[in-house]
Amino acid sequence: MDDYIIHIVDDEEQARKSLAFLLTMAGFAVRVHETATAFLAAAPGIGKGCLLTDLRMTDISGVELLRRLQADQIRIPAIVITGHGDVPMAVEAMKAGALDFIEKPFEEGRLIEAIERAVQRLATMPADADDVTAIQTRLNLLSERERQVLSGVVGGLPNKTIAYDLDISPRTVEVHRANVMSKMHAKSLPELVRMTLAADFPSR
What we know:
Number of domains: 2
Order of helices and strands: EHEHEHEHEHHHHHH
Largest sheet: 5 strands, parallel
Number of helices: 10
């Protein structure tokens, strides 16, 4: 991990400084970039690294940043930081190559664990065929209602909206959601999203 540099892209100075301090204290080599445009200019020569980018930025969004890196065939594992209500955008970011997304406010340990996972693989590395088969097997265990709830969850819809669309109570959605997490062996929403993307499961 010593060979890797964590590149922080955030147009808010305080956020950049806070993240840089946290990761430096955790033992990572860090470089900050004020804008996504600045990072793109430096990207061709960055070497080994991990990208940590905010989703909402004034010049280029985190999703657009990942799409441009993908178009330029620049391979760097990426994690996006998202605020409340940005889950649909975070899912789009994962489709554009992000390995994970972290929702604000986040625990320091959660962020560090995500970075440690990210630097172990390339963002564009496809899922292993055996993994996809295992995911598909778990999906087949879901009931029709659980699949409907899953589709809404990975589409970024809140429980109340899913409940309204399916004409069930929010509490029932919570029960189905918990069952889905259990059957899919998913420990978090980002992990669940990764599984559905790997298996081409449709989101709403």
